[in-house]
Amino acid sequence: MVLIRLFEEEVERQYKRARIGGYCHLASGQEGATVGAVHSMRDEDLLFSSYRTHGLALAKGVDPDEVMGELFGREGGSAHGRGGSMHLLDYSKGYLGGWGIVAGQLPLAAGAALEISYKDKRAAVMCEMGDAATNMGAWHEALNLAAIWDLPLVTVVFNNKYGMGTSVEKASGEPDLYKRAAAFRMHGERVDGQDVEAVLEASERLLEMAREERKPSVLEIITYRYRGHSVADAGTAYRTQEEMEEWKKRDPIVLFRERLVEEGRATAADLDAIDKRVEERVVQSVEAAEASPEPPVSSLAQHLYGDPESAEQFSRMGPGSPFGERELVLEGLGR
Ligand SMILES: Cc1ncc(C[n+]2csc(CCOP(=O)(O)OP(=O)(O)O)c2C)c(N)n1
Ligand SMILES: [Mg+2]
């Protein structure tokens, strides 16, 4: 949780220095939800997420150097600088992205869960999404399939009270989002996202249910993002100062820290040592990103088509050419 918090604070600094481009969505305040949900995943379990990616990728074990490298658009990034903040991806770690279309990750996650089920593997898929994604058609389609096909899918809804500037109450016919699982006769439950251990207990149990009993579920995690929707939004037009301050009193890192010390599970010195180690790790990730080269422009079209021959079927969708893209793509394909 501390790594995610400090990493994202650094991301914001680097963004403001224009060393990170494109969109950038921070999740400070949501670390308990993130770590609680992902920590109990096994290597063979797959994670899909929305565009609020950084913490989820780090929690799934993606190397901080590669996350920062991706944000810097460098070759050393986990998606070789092609994805950026919203499209982090690391297949080797079971993190299948980072998706910018709200709820777009849900059908993909259901498909991955179908593969697991079809091949009879002992694994599960977790699909993280925001509260607003539960109002999209893809939610209903994907959950319905998960229910009728008994897919090992844990759908995790990070309910941070807002989709951009619209509150859950304004946007949702049933604002108790976990209850929507009942529409698919699926297990649904709600947990306090500021209590990392409560989230951990629930996610562990639901992942196990998916792996062993092939039962999909919905886990609604109540949490709060301290910052605006993205770095372009101050986050103050649609919520009050009092509300924001109330939430900060239940900061997941502070709460867990206090509990660990009170219960004698760690000393303040142990926790300070973690903070120090993490600070150094974050600095190191920026250094690694800076040292990594930018991908050459000539490689822009790489990975668009697995096999140059298969480009044939996309011939009617050839790239436009005001800036010479056509030449670039065909050159990239070795044509
Ligand atoms: C299909 C689609 N519609 C609209 C958008 C624009 N958009 C991006 S994020 C967002 C709000 C999503 O809110 P929520 O699901 O609660 O996630 P949060 O940002 O709170 O993590 C919207 C409307 C989009 N990316 N995709
Ligand atoms: Mg939201």
Automatic annotation (TrEMBL):
<feature type="region of interest" description="Disordered">
    <location>
        <begin position="286"/>
        <end position="335"/>
    </location>
</feature>
<keyword id="KW-0560">Oxidoreductase</keyword>
<feature type="compositionally biased region" description="Basic and acidic residues">
    <location>
        <begin position="324"/>
        <end position="335"/>
    </location>
</feature>
<dbReference type="InterPro" id="IPR050642">
    <property type="entry name" value="PDH_E1_Alpha_Subunit"/>
</dbReference>
<dbReference type="InterPro" id="IPR029061">
    <property type="entry name" value="THDP-binding"/>
</dbReference>
<dbReference type="GO" id="GO:0000287">
    <property type="term" value="F:magnesium ion binding"/>
</dbReference>
<protein>
    <submittedName>
        <fullName>Pyruvate dehydrogenase E1 component alpha subunit</fullName>
        <ecNumber>1.2.4.1</ecNumber>
    </submittedName>
</protein>
<dbReference type="GO" id="GO:0004739">
    <property type="term" value="F:pyruvate dehydrogenase (acetyl-transferring) activity"/>
</dbReference>
<dbReference type="GO" id="GO:0006086">
    <property type="term" value="P:pyruvate decarboxylation to acetyl-CoA"/>
</dbReference>
<keyword id="KW-0670">Pyruvate</keyword>
<dbReference type="InterPro" id="IPR001017">
    <property type="entry name" value="DH_E1"/>
</dbReference>
<dbReference type="Pfam" id="PF00676">
    <property type="entry name" value="E1_dh"/>
</dbReference>
<keyword id="KW-0786">Thiamine pyrophosphate</keyword>
<feature type="domain" description="Dehydrogenase E1 component">
    <location>
        <begin position="1"/>
        <end position="297"/>
    </location>
</feature>
